[in-house]
Automatic annotation (TrEMBL), chain A:
Bias (Polar residues) ranges: 400-410
InterPro entries, per database record: AAA+_ATPase, AAA_lid_10, ATPase_AAA_core, BAH_dom, BAH_sf, Cdc6_C, ORC1/CDC6, P-loop_NTPase
Protein's organism: Sparus aurata
Role summary: Component of the origin recognition complex (ORC) that binds origins of replication. DNA-binding is ATP-dependent, however specific DNA sequences that define origins of replication have not been identified so far. ORC is required to assemble the pre-replication complex necessary to initiate DNA replication.
The protein's name in its UniProt record: Origin recognition complex subunit 1
Acidic residues compositional bias, start-end: 493-507
Domain BAH, residue spans: 45-168
UniProtKB/TrEMBL annotation, chain B:
Cell compartments where the protein resides: Nucleus
Function: Component of the origin recognition complex (ORC) that binds origins of replication.
Gene: ORC4
Subunit relationships: Component of ORC, a complex composed of at least 6 subunits: ORC1, ORC2, ORC3, ORC4, ORC5 and ORC6. ORC is regulated in a cell-cycle dependent manner. It is sequentially assembled at the exit from anaphase of mitosis and disassembled as cells enter S phase. Interacts with DBF4. Interacts with POLQ.
Domain of life: Eukaryota
Swiss-Prot/TrEMBL GO biological process terms: cilium assembly; DNA replication initiation
Protein's name in the database: Origin recognition complex subunit 4
A GO molecular function held by the record: DNA replication origin binding
Organism: Sparus aurata (Gilthead sea bream)
Length: 946, 447
């Protein structure tokens, strides 16, 4: 379908009536409807608030879809603006995420957009025309309508997951509610309180909407989630104001990672499990939301209490504190403005734990978070009164703080665990394992100052993401965790009923492990009882569990899968070999901390600021350039997943993986939008995309590997790549990788080099110590090498090239040789010096001498003849004819029958094929010139040794 | 009746020998390269069974048994059920896939990927590449079938633009994608220097060198086993006779001399096979006519069977054919005039020490010879001489110094002689009815 968005069609926009209201603060007039008339045509289209519209975008065929929330203009009336609620088209959802849908998207399908990365204020002049949007039930089939102008909404999309959407949100042409009595602060309609509200709404906190909240808490989970996420957005912004701390966090990251790698992997896992952060983030939001509408929340909480069964003993405990928890923060007016405080208090709130602790927290500012939280929960538990001594010893401060409640502190979740069904045994185990480790890992930090603690929690978060590469499915679950109340429900309901049906999927087990680890604050028994009464809530959750089958978006080629499973490594050497393979992704990249940090902070700052930039990374092959960038991206992606930084889009192209420099455009476009186009067309589309302001745009991080291959005579590909980031609306970060340090000076013309800028980084070849460290970290306590052997390898490689790949390959080959020689009685089973020496000989020794020794008599004679002729001529070159004369003479000396010219030429050609000789093309016959490819000494040495 | 039976045997013997010499039948057991065999087998087994990616180069001179080694390894590998079910093979040859575009299509075809998305494969080069890379990227170590890439004449792939194919294959082998094993076969010892630094870094630097150094007795043994009939041959009696015959043949002095000459020239078993092939293919032709006669020299005791044997004379004849000089052979077919011109050129070469000459100089030299002899037998017109000169050029016995000299007159175009003096003299000896004065002229030191 073509929309008349062409520039030649001029539209005239004007307000239909007098301003509805006037906002004194912002100096804006608000209107109810807008009239659009196309010049030359008598027809006039009227846009009203609540109507669905099409908004001009990059793609003429697929303009953006949105719903008008508000229409306003500035004081003079020249600037016409609109606040809209966005809908995402299928084409706007990344392909990878589209898989989450679990079905083929309908071409006319759109998604209610809940992401928060885009501005919802648009220029009214970009409105094209109204459009019909219908809400469909989740299960309802798409009508076979031929009407191209009707779009359908089934689900909402928040840049991570799809959810069912309430028809009320989509409802077409809802009568605009011009409550003039309401303060005209930006989102005044009830709609604005819905998840879509952002931009201005973030600054002025959303006006309480009783209906929404009530619905949220009265069992309509979908809705509940929506409101939560709205709150989350607000909180996240508060966070982003404090991006300074975050930056420092990223700085500390590498140091932390070093620590982490020194620790056993087990500890790391534990750390991850105990990471409280995901949750805390949400709680934060919840809190701020609650603060906003104090009254409502009080009511709703009360509702909640009442709905829980009275026979649950723990509830009575937590009930009273809860109310207090409410009032306490409410009383402190400045509370929500202190993010740090929120971070702490939210943790307590999330479990509805005693308020005193919360209050303490807020007043005392930052304290050791994680242990405290555990204690706080314990306080709410009636069962058992034995304290865990370990913890107390570890953090004295905490003891002091909560000592009042401590008296009743139970011995943590162990007892409830034992009561659980057998299937949960695994989780319980994880938990038990976990609890002793937790203090070990965290206590040293707790003694530090508050900023250090905050940072350390962040680090832990980062560590998590290193470990669990978020796969698409788990996103859904993560999302669930964001909403505390629901999460509890979900986990408990799963525990109760779905145990049998639980997939043996490792992922799920892991997930659950995390639940269990983070969950222990709330005793399960309590959850169980509560959930049993509220079973209906659980149903919508089901939809998002990873069980949903993944149907590929489109048929993609793949290598057929194995009929028999791959065998796992059986012994130490095989294990070592697997770990040493270059392809095995290391848990961390040792020796590149500085580079990691530099790239991380560069990209992160660009993403946070929403600007663009270029970076040039150079280094000889095998120094970890690409690996480091990938790791940075993994970390950032995770940071984006947990909403620390705005979401971004990472794409990667490789100069070597394309046939022609101009293919770069095609690949970028395809990875960005999934469109296919010719190189020229793709270049035009990208140009448009990066130079035009689009209201809804994420930062794009583009990795250009093997940059030198993108060189063209006019250098227009490079020029464009470096020019786009400088555009105002591009939000593009370009990371380029090449081998030579002076590439910009050498091959780039000035205007290209200038745009590349001066952000350069150079990866030095690894030193032998670093190489050793790399091997050690990869081996990771698998004892397969003798110390000397490792040192020999790393020294040898460091002296030659500093290429980590070479180093790993040598080690791998050494394990093989060791395995072969293991049968001998003298073998120790470890890779020793002798094995490494053998490999080095194999890989680095030249085979020319052996080749000469193995040559036939006539070939050897011919080589001697060549040398004799060179000596006679005093040149390093002779024609075959000249050499052949010498050859005949030598034959006679040796007592051999002289060979014919043809035979001689054949001999010569055979030597030439091995490249012992360098020859001219053979059609020159006897006239071809002959040169040696080996030094004369080598030849003589090889021949003498016979 | 006897003829009939023998004719049957005859066909069988022929089959067996042809199988060996022409189709490169794999030996049951490799000799001299057990270590290399083990190394390669282990490596490929790990790819097939464990899904470990690897890359390796097999380097050795021509005829050293590189391909045979690989084939033997594959045969042994595929005996294992686990490997057989999993391994996918792609065979490429640098002489056939002369650029990456063709190579990519061939890979796609051999992997049967073209059926997956229909016409997609026949898209542009860029699409092909993206398609294949995507396919390989989809896989992972544990779930997808390992792919074995065999790149014959590996060095030629290194001449492709940017070495795109090699980079990508090696990159896959070094990253967590579908498991692949890249096996390159080349005879160039300096092959690593051909690789671009990025490609080189991604290559695992495993090289298997096939530099066997057989001694002459081993060589002789090889000839014997190649000619002997296997024990499973149906007619035991005949088989015994035949093998005894081969034994005596190999002990024959003249035969050993011939073989020694071959051995000195080259240890290439390909050349050996082609050398033995010609006498071996001769004997069934001889057989029907001479089976009952006693005219066949060496053994005539039992005329029914023994004539089937290879005779030393056949081998000598084959050897003569092998070692004859091709250029000298061509000289036999020239006219006297052309031969005279060649001799004149030889003298010019002697005088001017290999400097190029033109037709006019050759003609002058020829005229000097005619004047000395004062005999008009060889008096030819200038155009005739010109024609003869052009014919020599067509035969590539002489070639112009620079091919761009089309502007100069043909008489003055500088030429070089493509023959060695020994070749000319040899040809003159054998030239039928060569005039004595021409021979003398050729032999004389001065023109």
């Amino acid at each position: 379908m073509k929309y008349s968005s062409r520039l030649r069609v001029r539209r005239v926009y004007r307000w239909c009536e007098e301003p509805l209201s006037f906002n004194r603060k912002l100096k804006t007039h608000e209107y109810r409807s807008l009239a659009i008339s196309v010049e030359g045509l008598p027809r006039t289209t009227v846009i009203k608030t609540g109507q669905h519209i099409l908004i001009e975008g990059d793609d003429e065929d697929n303009p953006y879809v949105a719903k008008v929330v508000k229409l306003f203009s500035d004081e003079s009336g020249t600037q016409k603006k609109a606040v809209v609620q966005w809908f995402a088209r299928v084409s706007e959802v990344p392909l990878s995420k589209l898989k989450l849908l679990g079905r083929e998207p309908h071409p006319q399908e759109i998604f209610y957009y809940e992401g928060r990365s885009c501005d919802d204020e648009v220029n009214a002049e970009s409105i094209l025309r109204p459009v019909q949007v219908k809400h469909l039930d989740g299960a309802a089939p798409f009508p076979d309508s031929v009407d191209k102008d009707t779009l359908y909404v089934k689900l909402s999309w928040d840049s991570k997951t799809f959810r069912a959407v309430d028809s009320a949100l989509v409802e077409q042409d809802r009568p605009p509610c011009p409550k003039p009595s309401l303060p005209p602060s930006p989102p005044c309609s009830p709609l604005a309180a819905a998840p879509g509200s952002r931009g201005p709404s973030r600054r002025a906190l959303p006006t309480p909407d009783l209906a929404v909240l009530r619905r949220a808490l009265s069992g309509e989970v979908r809705r509940g989630r929506a409101t939560m996420s709205a709150g989350k957005a607000g909180a996240a912004e508060a966070e982003s104001l404090h991006s300074a701390t975050k930056l420092s966090a990223s700085k500390c990251l590498s140091a932390k990672r070093r620590d982490a790698s020194a620790r056993t992997p087990g500890v790391r896992k534990k750390l991850e499990l105990s990471g409280p952060d995901n949750k805390s983030m949400i709680c934060d939001d919840v809190l701020s939301q609650l603060l906003d509408d104090e009254l409502e929340s009080e009511v709703t909480f009360a509702q909640r209490m009442s709905s829980s069964p009275p026979q649950a003993t723990p509830l009575t405990h937590s009930l009273t504190p809860l109310r207090k928890a409410h009032r306490a923060p409410a009383a402190e007016g400045a509370f929500p403005l202190k993010p740090a405080a929120i971070v702490l208090s939210k943790s307590s709130l999330s479990e509805m734990s005693p308020p005193s602790a919360a209050r303490d927290d807020s007043s005392r500012e930052l304290l050791d978070k994680s242990p405290q939280r555990g204690d706080v929960t314990e306080a709410g538990l009636p069962n058992g009164s034995v304290k865990t001594p370990r913890r107390r010893n570890g953090t004295p401060r905490r003891n002091y703080l909560t000592s009042g409640q401590k008296a009743t502190t139970p011995s943590r979740k162990k007892e409830p665990k034992t009561l659980k069904e057998p299937a949960l045994g695994v989780l319980a185990e994880v938990d038990n394992e976990n609890s002793p480790m937790l203090p070990v890992a965290t206590t040293p930090r707790s003694s530090k100052r508050k900023s250090a603690q905050l940072v350390s929690s962040r680090i832990r978060k980062q560590l998590n993401l290193l470990e669990n590469q978020q796969d698409l499915n788990s996103d859904g679950e993560d999302e669930d965790e964001f909403v505390p109340s629901k999460k509890e429900l979900q986990s408990s309901s799963e525990d109760d009923e779905d145990e049998a049906a639980l997939e043996s999927d490792e992922e799920v087990v892991l997930k659950k492990g995390r639940h269990a680890a983070s969950g222990p604050r709330t005793p399960r028994s309590k959850q169980k009882t509560r959930s049993s009464t509220r079973t209906p809530r659980k149903t919508p959750n089901k939809k998002i569990t990873p069980g949903t089958p993944r149907t590929p978006h489109r048929a993609t080629p793949s290598i057929p899968s194995r009929s028999l499973p791959a065998r796992q490594p059986a012994n130490v050497l095989e294990e070592a070999r697997t770990r040493l393979h270059v392809s095995s992704v290391p848990e961390s990249l040792p020796c590149r901390e500085q580079e990691f940090q530099d790239i991380y902070s560069f990209v992160e700052s660009k993403i946070v600021d929403g600007t663009g930039g270029c970076m040039y990374i150079s280094g000889v092959p095998g120094t970890g350039k690409t690996a480091t960038v990938h790791e940075v991206m993994r970390c950032l992606q995770h940071a984006a997943d947990v909403d620390e930084i705005p979401p971004f889009h990472f794409i990667e192209i490789n100069g070597m993986k394309m046939t022609d420099p101009h293919q770069a455009y095609v690949q970028i476009l395809q990875k960005l939008t999934g469109q296919k186009a010719t190189a020229d067309h793709a270049a035009a589309l990208l140009e448009k995309r990066f130079s035009n302001p689009a209201p809804r745009k994420e930062t794009t991080v583009l990795l250009v590997d093997e940059l030198d291959l993108l060189w063209t005579r006019k250098q227009n590909v490079m020029y464009n790549l470096f020019d786009w980031p400088t555009r105002r609306h591009a939000r593009l970060v370009v990371l380029t990788i090449a081998n030579t340090m002076d590439l910009p000076e050498r091959i780039m013309i000035n205007r290209v080099a200038s745009r590349l800028g001066l952000t350069r980084m150079s990866f030095q070849p690894y030193s032998f110590k670093q190489l050793q460290q790399i091997i050690m970290s990869r081996l990771n306590k698998v004892k397969a090498f003798e110390e000397d052997a490792l040192q020999l390898v790393s020294r040898k490689v460091a002296a030659l090239s500093g290429d980590a790949r070479r180093c790993l390959d040598i080690c791998r080959r050494a394990t093989e040789i060791c395995e072969h020689s293991a049968a001998k009685p003298s073998a120790t089973g470890l890779v020793g010096m002798s094995h490494v020496m053998e490999v080095l000989n194999e890989m680095f020794s030249s085979s020319y001498i052996t080749a000469i020794k193995c040559a036939s008599v006539q070939e050897q004679l011919f080589l001697r003849a060549v040398i004799a002729e060179f000596r006679r001529l005093g040149l390093e070159e002779a024609t075959f004819q000249q050499v052949f004369v010498q050859h005949q003479a030598l034959c006679r000396v040796e007592g051999l029958q002289p060979i014919s010219v043809s035979e001689g030429l054949a001999v010569c050609q055979r030597l030439g094929a091995c490249r012992l000789l360098l020859l001219e093309p053979s059609r020159l016959g006897v006239l071809q010139r002959v040169r040696l490819n080996v030094s004369q000494d080598d030849v003589l040495f090889a021949l003498k040794a016979d | 009746m006897i003829i009939c039976i023998i004719g049957f045997i005859d066909v069988q013997v022929q089959d067996i020998l042809r199988e060996r010499f022409c189709r490169q039948q794999l030996p049951d057991r490799l000799e001299g390269v057990e270590a290399q065999h083990k190394h390669l087998l282990e490596l490929l087994k790990r790819t097939a069974v464990h899904g470990e990616s690897n890359s390796v180069l097999i380097v050795g001179p021509r005829g050293a048994g590189k391909t045979m080694l690989l084939k033997c390894v594959l045969r042994d590998l595929l005996e294992e059920k686990e490997a057989q079910k999993n391994l996918l093979q792609v065979h490429l040859n640098g002489l056939l896939q002369t650029d990456d575009r063709i190579a990519l299509k061939e890979i796609t075809r051999q992997l049967h990927l073209e059926n997956v998305v229909g016409d997609k494969v026949f898209g542009s080069f860029a699409e092909n590449l993206a398609f294949l890379l995507e396919a390989l990227k989809k896989g992972d170590r544990s779930s997808s079938r390992p792919v074995l890439f065999v790149l014959d004449e590996f060095d030629l792939f290194a001449h492709h633009k940017n070495q795109t194919l090699l980079y990508n294959l090696f990159d896959v082998s070094q990253s967590a994608q579908a498991p692949v094993a890249v096996v390159g076969i080349t005879c160039r010892l300096d092959v690593l220097e051909l690789l671009e630094k990025r490609v080189k870094s991604r290559f695992s630097h495993r090289q298997i060198h096939l530099l066997s150094n057989p001694t002459f007795p081993q060589y002789l043994e090889r000839v014997r086993t190649q000619l002997s009939l296997p024990d499973r041959f149906p007619d035991q009696e005949f088989c015994q006779d035949w093998n005894d015959g081969v034994e005596t043949l190999c002990e024959d002095k003249s035969v050993q001399d011939v073989l020694q000459k071959h051995f000195n020239s080259s240890k290439d078993f390909h050349l050996l096979s082609s050398f033995i092939l010609s006498p071996a293919s001769l004997f069934p032709l001889i057989y029907p006519f001479f089976s009952t006669s006693s005219s066949i020299s060496s053994s005539s005791s039992s005329p029914g069977v023994t004539p089937l044997l290879l005779l030393p004379a056949d081998l000598l004849e084959a050897s003569r054919l092998c070692f004859t000089d091709s250029k000298a052979n061509m000289l036999h077919g020239l006219s006297i005039l052309e031969l005279c011109l060649i001799i004149a050129m030889k003298h010019l070469n002697d005088v001017y020490e290999g400097e190029p000459f033109n037709l006019q100089m050759v003609h002058n030299e020829f005229k000097k010879f005619l004047q000395r002899k004062s005999n008009s037998m060889y008096n030819f017109e200038q155009p005739v001489i010109m024609k003869a000169f052009e014919h020599l050029q067509q035969l590539e016995l002489i070639r112009p110094v620079d091919s761009t000299a089309a502007k100069t007159q043909r008489e003055y175009q500088l030429m070089r002689l493509m023959l060695d003096h020994s070749q000319i003299m040899e040809a003159l000896q054998k030239y039928p009815q060569c005039p004595t004065d021409v021979k003398q002229w050729a032999m004389s030191a001065f023109g």
